[in-house]
Known about the structure:
Helix content: 55-70%
Oligomer: single chain
Shape: globular
Number of domains: 1
Number of strands: 4
Amino acid sequence: MTAKASVGFTMSGFARFLLVALAICLLDQVTKQLVIVNIPKFGHVEIIPGFFDLTHLYNPGGAFGFMARGNTAWLNIFFIVFGCFTLGVIVYFLRHTPDTHKFLQLALALICGGAIGNLVDRVRFGQVVDFLDFYIGSYHWPAFNLADSAITTGVGIFLLHLLLKKIPY
């Protein structure tokens, strides 16, 4: 028997949420540190010729370099505040997500873990470390990291729940 932690979810659901969020954050930070230590800034290591490199970049803006130009100090403050706000919204949704919606809880955990991973970078460096670089010829997808991947996957799952009207609130 599990005790209710709050309206909507159980302690076991919260434990799963924390485990996934912490694992994402930890994996994100470990991979970024490996890049920082092993690849010079702006350097790259070709993994799949003509398609995928590991690189060492810093992004002062948001996803895909959004708002990357401008006063980086204010941008950093903005993204830290926005990240904290996002975490608050995630906690709100989590509190109202019943344990029967495990996939939705997973989405929230992915977003949370990714948001924390990128927040850690913003506090440490004033910007986010990006290192996954996919491209075809001279056409590059903006470099990203594991936190960005987790956030994108989590938002995709959340939107799928919205579209299918499986949101419990």
